[in-house]
Design a protein that fits this description.
The structure is a single chain. The chain is mainly α and 133 residues long. The chain is built from five helices and no strands. Helices cover 83% and strands 0% of the residues. α3 packs antiparallel against α4.
């Protein structure tokens, strides 16, 4: 009878170790998924240092206020896009970028606008958010 108790003990030990291994793998997978989602949402945060943007674009005092308002709206729209799934997300990003560009074109002169487009395109490319037409 002793060998059968020993076998049961080994089986229980093996079952216990397999359970622990599966739980560990599940926890690791869940952690990686959570990290991907956080990084993904963070990519849509378009907050910028307005003082540095003002210097880069050589903005006047009136333009700074207008650009702050436009960019605040753009950032809010991008945050909403981050919370949307699938094709709707890409559509929201596209519309947010189009509105931002349209409003910035109205406020900025030609040189400032070209510089802003370069900065925006670079940011969108670096974050993997570029809208393919």
């Amino acid at each position: 009878m002793a060998p059968s108790k020993e076998r049961k003990g080994k089986k229980m030990k093996r079952l216990f170790l397999m359970t622990i291994a599966m739980l560990s793998m599940t926890m690791t997978f869940a952690e990686n998924e959570e990290t991907k989602n956080v990084n993904n949402v963070e990519a849509y945060d378009m907050t910028v240092n307005m003082r540095k943007l003002g210097v880069a674009l050589d903005l006047t005092a009136d333009q700074i206020e207008a650009v702050e308002n436009i960019h605040s709206t753009f950032n809010a729209e991008m945050q909403l896009a981050a919370l949307t799934d699938g094709a709707d997300r890409q559509e929201r990003v596209k519309k947010a970028v189009e509105r931002d560009i349209k409003w910035m074109h109205y406020v900025l002169d030609q040189k400032q606008y070209r510089t802003y487009l370069t900065l925006l395109n670079t940011t969108l490319n670096n974050r993997g958010l570029i809208v393919n037409e």
